Amino acid sequence: MRPSLREDILKAGLKVMFESGYQGASVRDICEAAGAPHGSFTNHFRSKEAFAQEVLDRYFENLQGHIQRSLGDQTLSPRQRLERYLEIISDVLAADKWGRGCLIGDFSLETVSHSKRLRQRLEEIFEEWRAPFAACIAEAQATGEIDNTFDPVDLAEFLLSSWEGAILRMKVERGPAALDRFRKIIFQTVFKEQR
């Protein structure tokens, strides 16, 4: 019995979709990158859309590991945990030489007008992604570490949406300036430490 190529196809698909986007990544390109015959793709995935959702879910699972390492680090204050998350992601983006952004952001730009399934999944991901940030922000507000004028959920939404925008600029500029600017401004304004 021949081994399943499903895992190889998923790994290759992530890479190809980062490089070419959802629309630009053909099933042929994905199979070629995986060293798999085209039939293997159709054996394992009902459609490119279903495949893309699995790739997106895997990407988000990896991102949740970064969230846990930063926001779950109880040795840091809540505000420091938020800073730590942005540092970790900046390091990941630097390792890719500023050329690869966030697949969630990329898919949000590219797929939502073409795929109801992916749009709905992205909406769910944003809600799941926002929750630990809102909890961390609420904790920082409760301890007086940051201002409590705004609702923690709104602040979490603002943080993640603005960060995604900074990542888009980073990809255009192929450098860290937009990320550095964002981090500096947000922690001296919105998440300014209370005296």
From TrEMBL:
The DNA-binding region ranges are: 26-45
Organism, scientific name: Terriglobus albidus
Keywords carried by this UniProt record? DNA-binding, Transcription, Transcription regulation
Protein name per UniProt: TetR family transcriptional regulator
Q: Which GO terms describe its molecular function?
A: DNA binding
Give start and end of each HTH tetR-type domain.
3-63
Q: Which PROSITE patterns match?
A: HTH_TETR_2 (PS50977)
